[in-house]
Each structure stands twice: as C-alpha cells, then as structure tokens.
Design a protein that fits this description.
By secondary structure, this protein is mainly α. It has 10 helices and 2 strands, in the order ααβαααβααααα.
C-alpha cells in the first residue's frame, strides 16, 4: 500500500503539471516544501528546494508598514477593548505567533534541527537585490539547468496573484527594476523592538549572518 500511495503521489504531481503547462521546468511556490521534504523525497527522490530569507526586522517592518497604510481596512488583529494588537510591539507578537511569519520561522527552525537545510539552497533577499547575477548563477547551478541571461532592469510580470485573499498584507506586484529597498526597520519598529527580534531569533541571525 505504501508503494502504491507514493506512486500515486508522484504520478499525480507529474500529471497535474503536464496538464496545465508544456514548459520544461516547473517551480512550485510554497513555503511548505522544506518542512515536508521527507515526504516529498519518498516519491520524488532528491527534490530541489529553494528558500529565500530576509532580515526578520525587515519582514516585520514590511508588515507594520502595510498595517499603517491600510488602517481604513479591518486588519483582524486590533481590539482596543482587549488591548490586543494596539501597538507595534503587540502586533509583532501576534505575527510571530501565527501565519505567515511565525509558522514560516518555526518550520525553518525545524528544518535546521533535522538537517534538511543541507539539501536546500538558501538565497538571501539582500544579496539577490545587490548582486542578482551571482545569486541567479547559484540558483541555476543548484537546479542543474542552463543559465538564462536576465535583464534585471526590465523584469516582466507574467503571472498574477489574487492578493485579496491575503488581506492588507497581499502585494505580489513585481517591480520592473531589481534593486535594494531601504533598511528602515529601526525607524519603523523602533530600536527596542529590533533588539527583541534579534535576541528572540538569535539562531536565525547566527545561521544567516545577519548583523
């Protein structure tokens, strides 16, 4: 039965993508593949999993900026009567304990505990923005596919996401030019919150060499 089930899973994945595209390479975008690497490997041996990481202070600052510019909408996390989600620090606590940030970081921590990280390729957002050619070369080499020459000043958006399902945090609009965003997390979150993030996620900052 196990052999039959794993064969079913493999043929289901292949059959799905063969039915929706004729492209030679497929990348399935999901935060879950890393934590489910063992299951995936049972029917699709030695899968390639790429994970992009970013300074967590930048991630929380991005969430906070989206909250502040969309206060005309119900974020679902603020309750003034119960004093929940009413400050930047409290919102960080909520994001850290739920989806998408908290779950993603928890899974990433477990990936390192199990040693799955050794089979994955990690790309730092900051390095991709600063030196995209170098990072894309790493990606192509990891995937074992021919290198493509990109124009990082003229990036075309060829896929569309339904951002309405993500509430105030949904924004999959691709910028035409790849460039670094300003490091404004201290101004957005405050130094105390930034220090809390670095202390609470020390393993992450040590592992990915963020300072």
């Amino acid at each position: 039965m196990r052999k039959g089930f794993t064969s079913f899973c493999r043929e289901g994945v292949i059959g799905f993508f063969n039915a929706v595209t004729d492209k030679p390479y497929i990348i399935d975008k999901s935060r879950g593949w890393g934590i489910h690497y063992g299951f995936l490997n049972s029917f699709y041996p030695e899968p390639k999993v790429i994970c992009m990481v970013r300074d967590l202070r930048g991630i929380y600052a991005s969430m906070e900026k989206n909250f502040r510019k969309n206060q005309h909408m119900d974020s679902g996390i603020v309750n003034h009567a119960a004093l929940t989600g009413t400050t930047t620090e409290k919102r960080i606590d909520l994001w850290a304990a739920g989806q998408p940030v908290g779950l993603a970081i928890e899974r990433l921590s477990q990936i390192f505990k199990e040693g799955v990280n050794k089979k994955m390729l990690f790309v730092k957002y900051e390095e991709l923005a600063q030196n995209p050619e170098k990072e894309m070369t790493r990606i192509y080499e990891y995937l074992g596919v021919p290198h493509f020459v990109h124009d990082f000043n003229n990036i075309q958006q060829i896929t569309q996401e339904d951002d309405s399902v993500y509430g105030i945090y949904g924004d999959h609009t691709i910028r035409q030019k790849l460039e670094s965003l300003p490091k404004d997390f201290n101004e957005v979150l405050g130094s105390a919150a930034c220090n809390w993030i670095k202390t609470n996620y020390k393993w992450f900052y040590d592992e990915f060499k963020y300072y």
